[in-house]
Amino acid sequence: MQGRKVARMATFRSGFTLQHMVETARDLTDYAGVQRRIDAVLSIMNGDPRRTHGKGKRLVSALEDVAQEAILHEDFELAQRFQRFAAYAGGELFLEILENYYDERARQRSEEYMRRLVAMGAGQAVAALDVLCGDNPDATAADARDLFRGIAKSIDHLGLGNGDGDVKLSIREVRRLQQVGHMEILLRNLPTPASPETAQILSNVLEDADAGLLAQLLELKARRAGLEALRAAVNDPNSSESALHTRLKNQEWIFGGAFVAELARRQYTPDTILDIPLLRHDGSLHVVELKRAHVRDLVIRRSGHLMLGASAHHAVSQAQNYLRIMDENRAMVLRDFGVDTRRASATVVIGHPQYVTGGVAPQEIAETLRTYNTHAARIEVVTYETLLVSAARMLALSSVSHGRDETEEAIG
Q1: Mind listing the pLDDT tens digit for each residue in 7-18?
Q2: pLDDT value at position 189?
Q3: Domain end: 93, 115, 139, which one?
Q4: 305 and 250 in one domain?
């Protein structure tokens, strides 16, 4: 992407609840560097005499700095907490979302709402079945399934419009939708207990469920969903760099096991905004530069020889400039942000064989990129196809490893 941001209107937020959450989070870390960053946040919130609580872009940036410092100390839970704080302060999340995550009573209220929602849905299902049986007393289970399949398909035709003949939502309803979007209902397929004894047995089984195993399963599920979303964006020739960036945000696992996490901050110098900054295990920076998947001249044929096209060369030059700037500002970036940019590396993700023209075969594209990367020291060029294939392979290996662990546990 270009080294500038598109201006947009932001609704900055702050308040007592956020300040209380920040103060509470400070007690969750023993790292002096993280505590200093948190103190800087509190100083901003308390330092504006014109407001009860300071807010604005400066507060958002300070919260992101806490998240990044936590990542550097591999405290990913605290980092995620402050990333959410920053999203709220920047107007991207409603307060209710933070309360659901970090306020036990608010979470209980939301869970009660979800229970009522599920109960209401079950009640509507019973009503639909009553209508079906009333119209057709001989209705079978297959008829019931067809009925609910039809209802499910009709849901696809519902949408949120701008109010011109569509559904216009109030702020309260938008808040509720965002709350639902941050929840997940885990349904277990269990037989109906035939007796109180059976119910007690099932209850004991659930109490003994391995929380770590469930977390791994949910993580695998989330990664598969993220990979499919990226694949869909890549297969859409109209997908912009921004759309692809959205699919890859916080999906550092896709780039391989050499990276600890995606850094919260994207801007380290005034004239560079990185697409995806990743942290290596040794604390050094790795830059991912994203370009569109729909690139016709990714590899071209000239005088019988294959070579990278203009789009790829432009992307590599942009990555080179980023690395040069990071080298020149290494001391400042290390001092202010704790990230070592000396000899930082980069990956350029660009193009897909399905879009390349000129009669260049996928195998020829792969060989051309392999030859180019062999002669490059700090920058690697890969296609979205390569990214998708390698990520799918990692997922497959994770699934096999998970199954093997389960089998070994059963044998043991």
Answers
A1: 445 688 888 889
A2: 42
A3: 93
A4: yes
User: Phi and psi for 297 in degrees, rounded to 5?
Assistant: -105, 35
Q: Is 177 found in the same domain as 78?
A: no
Distance CA 316, CA 346 (A): 9
Q: What is the total count of domains within the chain?
A: 3
Dist. CA 17–CA 55, nearest whole Å: 13
Separation of alpha carbons 251 and 358, rounded Å: 33
Are 280 and 359 in a shared domain?
yes
- Does residue 80 form part of some domain? yes
**369 and 228 housed in the same domain:** yes
Residue 75 counted as domain residue: yes
The tens digit of pLDDT for each residue in 284-342 reads: 899 999 999 999 999 999 988 999 999 999 999 999 999 999 999 999 988 888 888 88
Residue 410 lies in a domain: no
From 93, 121, 150, the end of a domain falls on 93
**Tokens encoding 276:** 């995806």
Is residue 98 one of the residues assigned to a domain?
A: no
Residue 44 domain boundaries: 16-93
Do residues 14 and 55 make contact, with C-beta atoms less than 8 angstroms apart? yes
Nearest Cα neighbor of 38 from 75, 13, 63, 12 is 63
Q: Tell me the one-letter amino acid at 223.
A: R
Give the Cα separation of 52 and 116 in Å (integer). Answer: 37
Structure tokens at 216: 């791994």
